[in-house]
Amino acid sequence: MTDEFNTEIYYDDDADESHLETTTVAVLGYGSQGHAHAQNLDDSGVDVIVGLREDSSSRDAAEADGLEVATPVEAASRAEVVSVLVPDTVQPSVYADIESELDAGDTLQFAHGFNIHYNQIQPPEDVDVTMIAPKSPGHLVRRNYESGEGTPGLLAVYQDATGDAKERALAYAKGIGCTRAGVVETTFREETETDLFGEQAVLCGGIAELIKAGYDTLVDAGYSPEMAYFECLNEMKLIVDLMYEGGLGAMWDSVSDTAEYGGLSRGDAVIDDHARENMEEVLRQVQDGEFATEWVAENQANRPTYTQLRQAEKNHEIEDVGERLRALFAWAEEEETEDESVRMQADD
Ligand SMILES: NC(=O)C1=CN([C@@H]2O[C@H](COP(=O)(O)OP(=O)(O)OC[C@H]3O[C@@H](n4cnc5c(N)ncnc54)[C@H](OP(=O)(O)O)[C@@H]3O)[C@@H](O)[C@H]2O)C=CC1
Ligand SMILES: CC[C@](O)(C(C)=O)C(=O)O
Ligand SMILES: [Mg+2]
Ligand SMILES: [Mg+2]
């Protein structure tokens, strides 16, 4: 279906599950996305085999969830669709192991385009190369499927050797529940560059820095850490929930006129022209491959900078204050069970 934006959006009725009927799907990896794709496909009646290394710490979980587990090589050799859901940085080496198991007409399936777009994986010409990228953390892909909802996703076809690549990808999207919510067609390049930009400048990097800067400003001015935590971190969720439900408008409608005037008149003093120029620079590094080159080299060097940055983030005072405050409040207990899996993933 083409919507008013002229983008293709596909729903359940546009996807035909028979394209996976006589197909085995190998899901390589059983982490955030892997466990969700494997279980959702299995519940949708697709034949699934999970590919994990011999000593994998994920093996018990996959088997406990009732799934067959084999090595990545064996799983790929038995499957017609190989879904690569190990971390982006290990995909090239896992791919090197399974490449010889890909037969003509098989599908190599991704949830993010990094390794194809930046040429870290170069598949043979006779296989389909597709992407179904849920726009959500994997644990919500599973949770939304179980609750009967779906998770929006992106579809892209990089290589269509069979002429059937898109139909198979749509069947996969239906199997994991994405067509319930809607699947938008894009390209590997667009998905990769927007995803990297979004997580760096806005969703993960941008918001974490905004929260810490707000917290530090208040604490440095003599306000209590508890007040700073509630104001700058805890309430963020409630504000973002309103945006999620009804855009910025729903948020501005719900807050007081005082907050609305203050926010509208002062927000761009924080995210000013300089911050916007910095965002453009972040995007440039994504677009010209500078970030990708740096990230590949960082991994080859055993992640020295990543380890340092992670530690510094853990050491920020807001993490300690938050841990102690969350333990004291009733809402923490209620949300704990629901969010446990998400946090466990974040801790990995
Ligand atoms: N996280 C997310 O929500 C999102 C991720 N994506 C994309 O999905 C893909 C998967 O990401 P994500 O789910 O975060 O990955 P995870 O980090 O959660 O993957 C962990 C899984 O990969 C396995 N694994 C790790 N290293 C190796 C290795 N060297 N050899 C074999 N298996 C290994 C682990 O098994 P073991 O127990 O053996 O270590 C585990 O089962 C990526 O392309 C990512 O960009 C896309 C959208 C959102
Ligand atoms: C926002 C981070 C993400 O891009 C995602 C969950 O979509 C990721 O790579 O994990
Ligand atoms: Mg993303
Ligand atoms: Mg991402």
UniProtKB/TrEMBL annotation:
Superkingdom of origin: Archaea
Keyword presence, NADP: yes
Residue sites binding substrate per the record: S256
GO molecular function per UniProt: isomerase activity; ketol-acid reductoisomerase activity; magnesium ion binding; NADP binding
Binding site for Mg(2+) 1: D195, E199
Keyword field: Amino-acid biosynthesis, Branched-chain amino acid biosynthesis, Isomerase, Magnesium, Metal-binding, NADP, Oxidoreductase
Pfam families, per the entry: KARI_C, KARI_N
Residue stretches making up the KARI C-terminal knotted domain: 187-332
Cofactor notes: Binds 2 magnesium ions per subunit.
Protein name: Ketol-acid reductoisomerase (NADP(+))
Organism in which the protein naturally occurs: Natrinema salifodinae
